[in-house]
């Protein structure tokens, strides 16, 4: 169990250092194997925060303050509402339940919505003719609200955050640094809310083994992020956008179909 989580955390954190999303999205289903879904979201948020604090130490100096304020404040505010709604929506019935072999998969309203958004923007991100297209700063507060809200509910804020911040003319260093600072702001807010809702309701679930699992994932993610930092100067922004597009497409299909 610990080895699987460690390997997954290192690999995903290294890859998502450039894209700015994916760690929470891929770790949450893994934690869901050991915890109730609500607890898995909250536990993943702890690992996400620990990793983002480490990323801020590594690249936070490159973050643009104006962009952080325009995007981060709306995102953190919306994350509060989304995290509060998590406890209310956790009992929402799935739209579709289906089986593949012995495995059961569910398509929920939240996952379907986020999945469709991801696939739509993946096509947009991968289109060569739109490579120079910019959303402009006026859309940053809107992007912050959307990413923060969905992040609070399900932890899938990273993809929507990246969609907006990758199109406002940031250099690759500014992009990675700004995303790290904004992500840390959102994580602090939603973990605070989880502390009064999810963690309190499921406190008995967090035995020593569960705590060690979260610690293992956190330290492993730090290793992955450190490895990613070493390759940052060698990666072009266009390459980062291709990685973003492919991850958006894969995760969008996975979420929309209920597999992730």
Could you characterize what this model shows?
It contains 11 helices and 2 strands, in the order ααααββααααααα. The protein is mainly alpha-helical. It has one domain (2-256). A two-stranded antiparallel ribbon has the order 1-2. β1 and β2 (103-107) form a beta hairpin. The two termini are 19 Å apart. The model has no long low-confidence stretch (mean pLDDT 77).
Features:
11 helices; mainly alpha; single chain; 260 residues
Domain count, please report it. 1
CA radius of gyration is 17 Å
**Secondary structural class:** mainly alpha
**How much helix, percentage-wise, in residues?**
over 70%
The strand order across the widest sheet is: 1-2
Strand content: under 5%
Assembly classification = single chain
Discrete helix count: 11
Summary, kept brief:
The protein is mainly alpha-helical and 260 residues long. Helix content is 72%, strand content 4%. Strand 1 (96-100) and strand 2 form a beta hairpin.
Structural topology:
Blueprint: H1 2-19, H2 23-31, H3 37-59, H4 65-89, E1 96-100, E2 103-107, H5 109-126, H6 140-154, H7 158-165, H8 172-196, H9 198-201, H10 208-230, H11 237-256
Antiparallel strand pairs: 1-2
Helix pairs in contact: 1-2, 1-10, 2-3, 3-8, 3-10, 4-6, 4-8, 5-11, 6-7, 7-8
